[in-house]
Amino acid sequence: MNRGITGAIVQRQPFGGWKKSSVGLGSKAGGPNYLMLFGTWEDAVDVATAARVPAPEGTVGELLADALDRKAVTESGYAWLKAAAASDAAAWDAEFGTPKDQTGLRSEANIFRYLPTGVVLRVGADAEPHHVLRTVIAGHTAGAGAVISVDREASKQTRRAVKLAAKTFGVDVEKNESEEEFAAALAEGQYDQGVGARVRAVGSLSPVVWEAVASRPEVALLDDPVTGSGRVELRHWVKEQSVSMTLHRFGNPSPQFKALADKLKA
């Protein structure tokens, strides 16, 4: 099972750990998301086009309808969220929800897959309500657990969006706290889950937060712009995993390992 950790093999064994060796988003070297780290992504959703996207069904559709009815989002924000939810569903089916073996070798399996991870959603003072809902919907699509920290200066509309999302998806709203209080909590490890914490920031983060965790590389502050692209946003709510295994023993095929590989790819 698996190989040495010195050096990535593109597609065959993308490498990157989950502990202190993982800094930031932690996309694996040699994997499908690595190059996405070397730039920034901006929203290109056209509102006129988004308005023609049908409303999603189920819990997400109910959340968006409630948000519009209670004026937590505008008509244009509602249209944008519909398009974002559709993009999430497509990206999940095409990329994040399906384990892949790009090499297709008979003698070994090299499986790349995504697993949901716990995230701290930090809602800043300048966070837009539709951006808050968008990130929570992405986390729901990924099946990721989340806690929400809300800046004391966040607008009433943004707070309304947070409450709707928390009620709909059962997300924990940890507390209302200033940037200084949030920074201190991160530095003290109050938000740690396992090794460190992953923070998805909606709105801006002040220097005090960055300075507080400068000595903690295991705390990832992800303040990329919120976009309507599921291929971009869902990365924040999952961890990547590579599983490599030999399917033979001295040249003799191993039915047991083949069955295990098939199970992991299912």
TrEMBL record:
It comes from the Bacteria. GO terms for molecular function: oxidoreductase activity. This is Uncharacterized protein. It comes from Nesterenkonia salmonea.
